[in-house]
Write a structure and sequence with these properties.
5-stranded antiparallel beta sheet; globular; about 210 residues; 3-stranded antiparallel beta sheet; single chain; Phosphorylase Kinase, domain 1
């Protein structure tokens, strides 16, 4: 029997401990009553298919992410691998400085692989990364895109940096430096373009706040 474990604005997450013998996470996109029923169904259908496709692309790029077991576009449902572990957000404070550096270097490498593969996460935060025994796994690509635009890569990086500044402020410099080193190592010349755009986006944000 599937059990509700999280409710989001767009979807509910249910845990099924025995889906065809596998422990599975079921993501169900919810109906939006304010939309016309046929339009709502088509939006949920297309977003479900798109997210499943993104997950396949992420895996193909060599980035650890949940396996997709089943997709039902008509019911706006994806059945995927349940990742055993702890959100990176919740383990940072318990790690030594070297463990923090090693983990964020790894995250930087994987983010570089993802961007090099033409994938934008869309919500690149430590809440969407799971620390497992085998390393960090990226989850929740509901806002993901297929794009190689520098602007969108910069937005991804800016979101991560802002989140570190607000949530893990005492470790921000250490964590983001390690992340940047891994990102550049994996992504070569294009990494600098994305990082430069991230800094430009940060400046834009500060300018708007002052207005």
């Amino acid at each position: 029997m599937a059990q509700l474990i999280a409710k989001g604005a767009e979807a509910d997450l249910l845990l099924n401990p025995d889906w065809n013998g596998l422990k599975a996470l079921i993501k169900v996109r919810k109906e939006k009553k304010y939309r016309h029923p046929e339009l709502d169904k088509e939006i949920r259908r297309s977003r479900t298919l798109f997210e499943a496709n993104i997950l396949h692309r992420v895996k193909a790029a060599g980035v650890p992410a949940p396996l997709v077991y089943q997709v039902d576009p008509e019911k706006a449902t994806i059945v995927m691998e349940y990742i055993e572990g702890t959100k990176v957000r919740d383990v940072i404070k318990d790690l030594s400085e070297q463990e923090k550096i090693d983990m964020f270097h790894e995250i930087g490498v994987k983010a570089g692989q993802m961007h090099r593969g033409g994938i934008i996460h869309g919500d690149l935060t430590t809440s969407n990364m799971i620390k497992t025994e085998k390393g960090v796994v990226f989850i929740d690509f509901g806002l993901g895109e297929v794009s190689s635009e520098v602007e969108k890569r910069g937005v991804d990086l800016n979101l991560l940096h802002r989140m570190l500044t607000s949530t893990h402020y005492e470790y921000t410099d250490t964590l983001f430096t390690a992340f940047t080193e891994g990102y550049i190592e994996c992504f070569n010349g294009e990494a600098e373009d994305a990082l430069d755009r991230m800094r430009e986006i940060e400046k834009r944000g500060r300018y708007i706040e002052r207005e």
